[in-house]
Amino acid sequence: MYAEKFLPQVIAWRRDIHAHPELSQHEERTAGLVAGVLEGLGLEVTRNVGGFGVVGLLRGNASATPPSLWDTSPCAGEASTAGLSPVKTVALRADMDALPLNEETGLDFASETPGVMHACGHDTHTAMLLGTACALSGMRDKIRGNVKFIFQPAEELNPTGGAPGMIRDGVLESPNVDGIFALHVWPLYETGKIAIRSGSCMAASDRVYLTVHGKTAHGSRPDQGNDAIVAAAHVITGLQAIISRSVSPLDSAVLTIGTIHGGYRYNVIPDTVKLEGTVRTLNPSVQDMMPGLISRTATGIAEALGCSCDVEYVKGYPPLVNDAGMAGIAREAVRKACGDGAVIVADEPDLAAEDFAFFARERPAFMAWLGCTPAGVNVNDAPKLHNTKFCPDEGCFRYGIDYLVQSAIDFLR
């Protein structure tokens, strides 16, 4: 539909970006490529927004609706804007950063940077949004309103993320953004499908750091010390009771301890054990109560075993909530641009996190999940996001571009 003529170039951009991945806050090369393409399209381009962020502004040339012929109010002939509907601005967002992983895809265009890989599909998001900019820039005479293309750095930089920096630098202003769309490649769906969900879509992602302090002793005389390892083990077990007994069964929450560091010799009881974990929640009120519950549980258990526990809780990305009105626009856009069979209504949210949630707190927003597992491959067997073998099907690009273009057009109508 809209994407067809640009697909070879979009694939070339994607492969170039994939071969040269850049970590969060280091997206200089990618940002330069993006800015060059947008400038070549004649857009108003701003660089270094919130770091290496790039913004391209397309101003539509379609004329405004004239005042009604039967408007006979005294001011009808005095104000040129009488009877005109306001000009709106829609934003489309893609992220650009990669992950600190060693690629194992075997692709001809695999990462040329050791230890860095586009394992979350941000290379595809960037390329598809560039293709969307190509399509919409060729339609500017039919567009009434503005389209703002937001290329964001540091999405993977939890807990700070890259969206807040762009927001602080005014990405949603001048002109004011009225609504914002995004997509994410999603290997749980096959190519040709786009999943839509209104309301809670993705989780808040917080960090928790716990340090258990005990008293060292020889391994043969545990009675002379306070075993920080034993206390830490009980703390880990006890924390799971928060999810099962302090969070409503109707709310989703996850508390995972991902690292344990303690001890320095097999026969010595250590005095310190450090734990680090992640907390995922969908309900903001549940997110707010987690620091207190974790602190009370961890310190109480540690003290009962003669130890103490320091707790540091760092809030990260908020829950991503898709606006209901934007979801309606997105669903109809998928149907029109990709066909009735492309639409999937997602029954459940996902406890992965996305810093697009920061944009969604500021403006009506919607993120769709773009199927990217090729035909013939079971979605359960396809490598998932943040996997060293993750490789989204390039056949999904046309669906992603057509969806974004149609969403922008329909929103501005």
Supply the CATH class of the largest domain: Alpha Beta
Distance N to C terminus: 19 Å
Known CATH architecture of the largest domain? 3-Layer(aba) Sandwich
Radius of gyration: 25 Å
Q: How is the main sheet built? A: 8 strands, mixed
Strand content: 25-35%
Query: What fold name goes in the CATH topology slot of the largest domain?
Result: Aminopeptidase
CATH homologous superfamily assignment of the largest domain: Zn peptidases
Structural class, by secondary structure, is alpha/beta
How many helices? The count is: 9
Key traits:
30% helix, 16 strands, Alpha-Beta Plaits, eight-stranded mixed beta sheet, Aminopeptidase, alpha/beta, 2 domains, four-stranded antiparallel beta sheet
Kindly describe this structure:
- The protein contains nine helices and 16 strands.
- A hairpin with a 3-residue loop joins strand 1 and strand 2 (53-59).
- The chain has an eight-stranded mixed beta sheet. It has a four-stranded antiparallel beta sheet with strand order 10-12-8-13, with helices on one face. A two-stranded antiparallel ribbon has the order 7-14.
- The chain has two domains: 4-201 and 319-412, Aminopeptidase (3-Layer(aba) Sandwich), CATH 3.40.630; 204-317, 2-Layer Sandwich (Alpha-Beta Plaits), CATH 3.30.70.360.
- With 413 residues, the chain is of the alpha/beta class.
